[in-house]
Structure formats: structure tokens, C-alpha cells
Amino acid sequence: MFKRGFGCGPSMPFFKKLDYDRAAGLYDLLDGSGLPYEEAARKIATVFQKHNVHTLLDMACGTGNFTIPLYRQGYQILGVDFHKGMLTEARRKALATHARIPFRQGDMCRDYFGQFDGITCMFNAIGHLTPREFNDALWQFNLQLRKKGILVFDIFNFSWLRDHFTYTTFMDQAGKSVGAWFVRFNHNALDERSKVMRVHQHTFVQQNRLLSHYKEEWDMQTYELRELETLLHLNGFDVLHVWGDYSTKKGFEEFKNDKSRSITLVAQKNG
Ligand SMILES: C[S@@+](CC[C@H](N)C(=O)[O-])C[C@H]1O[C@@H](n2cnc3c(N)ncnc32)[C@H](O)[C@@H]1O
């Protein structure tokens, strides 16, 4: 199943994971706030309608930002995430919005949660997996989808990243929310051989004149479209549609290899 030639090269021998339990309290402030969850849920629902999708697994659901809009689109949905801290936030928000969604802890590379018409794994979750883990996850997704079930996921587009990579330090978040000032600096590296981006982030949060500093370092696996197509094919999926970037203004755009930062794939189990 695993395609030879993938994997971290010698310059990046270890694949570093982000501890989302530590980051859970800041996730919505720093990452979740700018993402077009509502638009994405509406767009993906149009695809699901065509393929008779009623039951959904939202894998790597995080704090439930995408699970809740999908639930509101009328799906019977289960949210699963690896990190307990993210699930605590998800449950709290579901309760507050009267969304009757079960959330469970699990690993997308190993765990089985039942049979579903569709699986979503959105907003850079796949990038946290090594290529071998991703291959295992695709196999698990296949097992959990009914015949002709639909899988939707996204990932950074290596072709775009290689040509537009920022090697200098930059600020990607700054502002004030719920009485706290926050600012985040990034200094990232891209290993072109393994296609792994190593993210270094320093986040400062000031509340009541008390300054906290969080330092995170983790890896993001990126892919080219043809690699994803091969992996999907090897794991029993046909690609139905490829979208590019998503934004709150425009929703999903069509994919263009040199212009799209992200690749969003809609795939169908071919058995
Ligand atoms: C960038 S967040 C995306 C969260 C959510 N989908 C959203 O759009 O807000 C990535 C999520 O992937 C989860 N994750 C990472 N590895 C995982 C794994 N092996 N199995 C399940 N979830 C995982 C993390 O805990 C985190 O919540």
C-alpha cells in the first residue's frame, strides 16, 4: 500500500507532532476564528446530497468548529479527535448550541467507529500525519465507509508552498479578544525532499498585565496532487473533485496547481 520514496528525509529524521491538548484553549482564538466553516459545510453538503450521504464521521473534529455546522445541515454525525482537550471544547460548544453530537476520542490511523455514508477530515488535520500514517488512515476510512461512500479532506499543496515559501519570521495573528491581547510569530522551514514543513511558533498572550509565552514546534506533511491521487487509488478511492483554497468570502475555489495553497479532495470509495 505504502508508496516507496515518501517519508522524512535525513535532514528531518523525526516527525514532530503538535500537542493539541496544550494548544486547545488557544485553538479557536488563533486558528479556528478565520476559517470558513459555515461556507465549507454548505458547499460539502451539496456534494453529499448528490451521493445520498446521511450519516457522517467528522474525523479530527478538533473543537467541533466544522462538526456543528455539518450537524446543522441535517447530518447524523459523530465527531472524533485524538486530543481530549480539543474534545472538551467541542462538547462544551455543542452543549451551548443545543447540538446533539456525540464526540469520541480516537486515532484516525487505527480506530474503527462504525459504518458511515461520508467522512470529513478537514482544515489541515491530515498534515499532522506522516505519509505512512496517512496511508493507514486512508485504509481505516475505506473500512468505515459504506459502498460508494464519500471522503472529503484537505492538505497543503507542496507545489504552491515550494514557490511561495516565506523563510523570514512573520506574524500571522495579532489582536484582542475576551480581554486578552495576543500575537503569534512564525519562523518555518521547508524540507523539499520530504515535503515536510517544520513550523516554529511563538505566541504571546497578555491578560491583566500578565504576559504568557507559548513556544510550539511541529511538522506538517505536504503533498502534490498526483501523490494524493496515487495514495487514494491504492486505498480503493476514485477522485470525484478537486478544490483549491477556501476563504470566508469565496468559499472553495477550483484547484490550480501553481495558485492554490491547499488541495481539497472529494473522493468516493470505489467498491
Ligand atoms: C488543525 S486541527 C483541525 C480541527 C478541525 N477539523 C477544525 O477544522 O477546526 C487538527 C486536528 O487533528 C487532530 N488529530 C491529529 N492527529 C490525529 C489522529 N491521529 N487522529 C485523530 N485526530 C487527530 C488534532 O487533535 C486536531 O484537533
- Please indicate the percent range of residues in DSSP E strands (runs of 2 or more): 35-45%
Q: Specify the CATH homologous superfamily of the largest domain.
A: Vaccinia Virus protein VP39
CATH class of the largest domain: Alpha Beta
- N-C termini distance: 17 Å
Features:
single chain, 271 residues, S-adenosyl-L-methionine-dependent methyltransferases, 7 helices, eight-stranded mixed beta sheet, 13 strands, disordered N terminus, 2 domains, five-stranded antiparallel beta sheet, alpha/beta, Rossmann fold, binds S-adenosylmethionine
SSE layout and pairings?
Layout: H1 20-30, H2 37-50, E1 55-59, H3 67-72, E2 76-81, H4 84-96, E3 103-105, E4 116-121, H5 131-144, E5 145-156, H6 158-164, E6 170-177, E7 180-186, E8 189-191, E9 196-207, E10 210-221, H7 225-234, E11 237-247, E12 251-254, E13 262-269
Parallel strand pairs: 1-2, 1-4, 2-3, 4-5
Antiparallel strand pairs: 5-13, 6-7, 7-9, 8-9, 9-10, 11-12, 11-13
Helix pairs in contact: 1-4
The site of S-adenosylmethionine (SAM) has 19 residues, from loops.
Structure characterization notes:
With 271 residues, this protein is α/β, with parallel strands linked by helices. The protein contains seven helices and 13 strands. It folds into two domains: 20-155 and 224-269, 3-Layer(aba) Sandwich (Rossmann fold), CATH 3.40.50; 161-219, CAC2371-like domains (S-adenosyl-L-methionine-dependent methyltransferases). It has helices at residues 20-30, 37-50, 67-72, 84-96, 131-144, 158-164, 225-234, and strands spanning 55-59, 76-81, 103-105, 116-121, 145-156, 170-177, 180-186, 189-191, 196-207, 210-221, 237-247, 251-254, 262-269. Strand 8 (189-191) and strand 9 form a beta hairpin. The longest helix has 14 residues, at 37-50. It binds S-adenosylmethionine (SAM). S-adenosylmethionine binds next to loops.
